[in-house]
Amino acid sequence: MLRGIFGHPFARFLIKKVIFYAIVTFVALTFVFLIPRLMPGDPVDMMVHPQPGSPWYNDMLILRENMREYFGLNKSLFDQYIAFWGQVFTLNLGVSYPYLYPSSVASIIMARLPYTLMLVIPVLFVSFFLGNWIGAKAAYTGGKLSEAVYFFSVFSNRLPSFWFGMVLVFILAGRLALFPAYGYAAPGMLPSWNFNYVNSLLMHYLLPFITLMIVYLGGWATGMRSMIIHEMDSGYVRYSEQLGFKKSTSMSYAKRNAILPQFTGLNLYFNALIGETAILEMIFGWPGVGRTMFDAVFSLDYPLIFGVFIVILVIVILGNFLIDTLYGFLDPRIRAGGKR
Amino acid sequence: MWELLLNSRKFMIGLSIVVVIILLGVIGPMVTLNPNKMNFGALSQAPDTHFLLGTTQFGEDVFAQLCSSIRNSLMVGAFAGAVGTLIAVFLGALGPYKGGLADDVSSFVTNVVIVFPVLPMLIVLSAVIVERTLFLVGVLIALTSWPWAARSIRSQVLSLKEREFINLARMSGMKDRITVVTEVLPNMLAYIMMVFVLLTGGAIIAEAAISMIGLGPPHALTLGQMLYWAMRQTRLAHWWDSWWWFLSPGIVLTVFLSAVFVMHAGMDEIFNPRLRKM
After folding, report:
1. CATH architecture of B72-277
2. ipTM, 2 decimals?
């Protein structure tokens, strides 16, 4: 029974992926642990600067020692490393200090994570379906439309999203006053499920969403257009045309073959999207994890900086694993097995 | 093959735009005013004949700032692009040539780095490194930008490896290392150049993204740094009221990246046998 499950090619594919991502997580978190500890000085040096000659000099030195003990920085590197993994597994990432003292890092992140995911996930999937549809349509129609789609999608994909976001704020929020420029809800509103709040949230949501959407649509459309053009040139499409198939029938075969490589692009786009969303959150004042990290960096809140980074890392790895699983499920060579 | 490039319309259009931007960065800082000179008689002025692109809130000439920023951004980009290309060539060519464990390790390292969330990691690194210089930011970008390039170079080397002249070199007793340097790499020069061009474009945008959120080198003016200050410092009611300040760096970035893409597309048509029109 067990052997039957592990013998299945799809199961083997999944197990390989799980092992791979487990190693990636291990390596990445070890880096996160080591890098700041290999740098000269430690966070406490940056938070407390005792001035020789000041009346509190000795008190400051004692404060520093107490803080080191509180953060566990006076223990040996190995003990710290063990404690670090304990924290990661129990999701006990410490207390934010000084940015949002005394909230726990985990509770801050849990409150802000939904805002990031509600940008990343819809943008990823809507741009994937819409962009691929536009690209396929353009290649299928050909002529001037195809050229125009190519031109615009290359251009939109070259736009630096952080600058394009600024331009949209300038035009749509500043000049035309269609959208609010900053934040996530009108001042004074508390998150709840009433109409006013949801409406206000939506209006604030649209600008960053449109920004990312335009940039990512272009990427999918260019890729799909060239894939379809390549497939339309291949033997089976030409043959089916000679057999007198309707163009839409042969196109549906071409689309199936062209979409598969596009799915491998999901990983790359997802990884890029996580980073770009983090930056856009700062421009639009969107309260996701990216902006939290930014605020933490500027208030030297080390527990929060590393907490956010660990969570982003876990999301990226989980996302990549899910996308790989989806790919394995869609690719008949992996799903049904046989020689690859 | 190289003279084909001169006849490629795409390549030449892209190249001429890139050259114009490089000239702006090289000659611009010599002829414009000091980019940090504050002119208190002309604070936050819109573009006119005296200040081609207006002034910042401190009365600094935006055009002068733009030229210095282009120079610094190009320097970081070219440096990070070159280092990234070297890493990609080394790891990409090593695997197929050594085979076995070396191949497994280099592919594995590439696959691991490919899933790293680069921008958040650069943010963390910038937070723990206090002395950020242009050079250091370049190194950080180079260390994170190479994986896709290494992967595609690896597949190029794998297909080149099976060609007759390589077999001939091997049969005549040439050492692997020498074969790679004298036979394989020269045949991949065009491809490596394409990788360098794309990595440079990517490095410039990565630097702009880091500087845009205030984590770039604090004492050097780059395109991202201009955007950062334009958003944060304004005497006017909103930051977007001084539109001349933030529009120009972004336009330069977009035009540069588009030109790099067009150049790359032109090179691809010539060097990629599948796309070549004979």
Report:
1. Orthogonal Bundle (1.10)
2. 0.87
